[in-house]
Amino acid sequence: MAHHPHQQQHGREHGPDHEHGTGHGHSHGTEIDWAELAPHLEAQAELFMPLYERALAWLGKEVTEPGLIVDAGSGPGVVACLFAETFPGARVLAVDGSEPLLDRAGQRAARLGYADRFGTLAGDLPGVLEELDYPADLLWAGRSLHHLGDQRAALAAFAERLAPGGTLAIMEGGLPSRFLPRDLGLGRPGLEARIDALQEEWFARMRADLPGSVAVTEDWSALLGSAGLKHTRTRSFLLDLPAPASDRTRAYVATSLSRLRDVFGDALDPEDRAVLDRLLDPDDPAGVHRRPDVFVLAAHTVHTAVKPT
What we know:
The chain has helices spanning 38-47, 49-60, 78-86, 99-112, 151-160, 191-209, 220-226, 247-264, 270-279, and strands at 68-72, 91-96, 118-122, 136-142, 162-178, 230-241, 296-306. By secondary structure, it is of the alpha/beta class. The radius of gyration is 19 Å and the shape is globular.
């Protein structure tokens, strides 16, 4: 089934760096090549595993013994495989518009021993969910919903594919990640806050460029209710990887900042560009490869609701 590259996503904040994606070409581009991003998507999801483990443990307190779990916008399958681990009696279906990412998901499931109860389905969300053989007991959309033009209609379609008593869980919102002190000893304090502002503008353009884009107030509990679901809950989960950072954490931070530099370099003032260049220089003691104060602090929010029986 054909897919539009805008229509799937695999975990991100309001911008093209964290968890999924970078605009192509220049600071105004919002096209995303998910297959090219696969290694970064996997590395990010693996780094954020403690956060996902806590989120799934929370889900597991109310979603007991699901038969079918659908990961809508699964990407390379890191979280989908975590669902298979967390719910050993469930069949897990990874759904995405990128077949190369689904190939990686299937390979990961096989490596981890879940192949007998792990499947993949390629196609555009939400329409591809009509191909499900039976309703889902748990449908998870981890930062994929905001890559669909009409989010309200997508939630209604997700709800339609739930079994009675089934749970819809979406990860949307939270706080921007932080990697460095506000005053990092280079340039003007507040570099990451200035980048945040650029990412918010990028996110607004990305949303506006989506096919069938509809503006909606991001009151997720109300939107879940408007899809006919009940018992809405919301909880945020923290990833706290304090300094001194591991080599894996440093590599993730460097990759994220490099993507930001590529996408927003022209929009940053010369001093901020120069600071980013120093932060990305492996030989600079003030760079993220060597400085002692690099960390990762992030918060992601999960919203859930249940289909009436």
